[in-house]
Amino acid sequence: MLKVKDGQLDQLGLLFERHNRPLYGFFYRLTADGPISEDLVQNVFVRIIKYRHTYKGDGKFTTWMYHMARNLFADHYKKQKRMGYKEDPEVTDKYLVNEVNAEQTRIQQEQLDLLQLAMNKLTPEKKEVLVLSKYQGMRYQDIAEVLEITESAVKVRIFRALKDLKKAYESLELQPKSKTQNI
Questions:
Q1: What are the backbone angles phi and psi of residue 117, rounded to the nearest 5°?
Q2: How is the chain split among helix, strand and coil, in percent rounded to 5?
Q3: CB of 64 within 8 A of CB of 71?
Q4: Residue 52: pLDDT band by 50, 70, 90 thresholds?
Q5: pLDDT of residue 21
Q6: CA distance 132 to 148
Q7: Is 102 helix (H, G, I), strand (E, B) or coil?
Q8: At residue 98, what are phi and psi to the nearest 5 degrees?
Q9: Cα–Cα distance between 38 and 166 in angstroms, integer?
Q10: CA torsion 8→12→15→19, rounded to 10°?
């Protein structure tokens, strides 16, 4: 990143190769929308070029990048005023092709879908901290830097978010299948 900051913009390709997939995963878990996630990843790298002069190099590049991604998502969220779960009607059909593990795969996917529904019931702040921690694998210290809070506050937020996620998941599990499919 220091080379990009110094004007060697060709080095941005290397940064993109290293970080586009984790960023895509971060955005996808927040939006549940592939095309929007791809757009947001591209916009992060546009902002990296635009604001490269603000990178100091005294901390981790990923912390700076996720801070930028978080701000970009906040802008996107304000514009959209919604975060919804979108299900492709053909999703369940693709599991019928694999005869050996079709039932097991379908059950796992239903559990993942239920988990995504439960995640969507969380507040954006709780959802974000869980995505950074559990899906992106960021350390509490790095999350604290991104969110500009203390490490202790990160631990508390994650604990509370997991508690709420468990409640939401369990309540969805208890609902009849037809109700959870319509959510």
A1: -60, -45
A2: 75, 0, 25
A3: no
A4: confident
A5: 92
A6: 14
A7: helix
A8: -80, 100
A9: 29
A10: 160
